[in-house]
Amino acid sequence: MKKILIMNNNMQIGGIQRALANLLPEIADKYEVSLFLLNPEGELLKEIPENVRVITANRFVRVLGMSHAQAKDKGFFTMLWRGFLVIMTRIFKTKTVFGFLSRMEKPDGVYDAAISYMQNGAPDCFYGGCAELVLNAVKAEKKICFIHCDFENYEGRCRYNIDTLKRFDKIAAVSDSVKRQFLKVVPTLQDRTVTVHNCYHAERIIKLSKAYEAPRASGKINIFSAARLSAEKGIARMIPILGSIRDAGVDFVWRIAGDGADRENIKGLISQYKLEERVILLGTLDNPYPYFSAADVLLVPSYDEAAPMVFGEAAILNLPIFTTDTASAREMVGLPGIGRVMPNDDKAILRDLKELFTNFNELKFDKKTPNNRDAVKEFDNLIMGEDSD
After folding, report:
1. Model confidence pLDDT, tens digit, residues 54-66
2. CATH topology for 3-199+371-384?
3. For a surface tag, which of 60, 254, 330, 386 has the fewest beta carbons within 10 Å of its beta carbon?
């Protein structure tokens, strides 16, 4: 049985963490898996299989997996140390800071494969570090980095991150479109880059969708979104667009699960366009899936996305998807026929949504769910050294 180490920042609710939580049960009986968490916290910890060994970073490195608020809760020293590293990162960039931290940690053991399950962020952002730790601190025959972003449009697209990725034996992109976008930037890694699709826990999602009854507005189009409230997710752009759609006579309710830095801006726009009764911010939900079941359509209005987990989750619950044209939208939504892909500009979104909502009851969508069997085979090929493409 091959020994593999997978490294991630934490197990808080997020797309990368959810993808990892879905992958672990699929591989835990096939490999001797060690999960190295920079910060061993998060709501998804309880989903880690019992036969996966969890390793944690030392107190100096652990802050890489913490937010400022989490560091503050840990005490003055932790908050001060993280704050110092954040300042150093802004001045000297991640090359210096992550390089320094990666030499402060020495995980025990020798592995057949070591995986950084996340890519680095912007060079002045204290986010990431798993790549450097895998490269500099872990002893392994093969070293792999996963890419969960549209690298061509990613804030972390910089010379240092590209040079770091070139040190890996393999790059695993989470969709064919993510792979194509990455290779546009780094074509020299063509022979080392493969696709390993995300896994989904369909039974869990279906069970959770029945945990409680989410509200549904009768006689209206029930729209749902699950997203971090940040600028790139496009929630704010939708408020004036939906104001125009309301003025055109379309009756709808849009419920949004998630929180983030753009919340107050979004609330202000909701008030400005007098959409308080139609656009409802739910905050962070431990279990948003009943809202999927209660909705008529999932709206994903992002400016940039890679291969969002929410596409597959909606497909499992037979919820049609209206999404802007981001990296994997055509591959994951348009081609399977499980929704509609709209051009990624505000005028086109308004035009297409107005038409889609006006003729909503006449629309037909296919029902296709993600296939874990193929995704696990791709992962096996990655570990075993076979070409998965």
Report:
1. 999 999 999 999 9
2. Rossmann fold (3.40.50)
3. 386
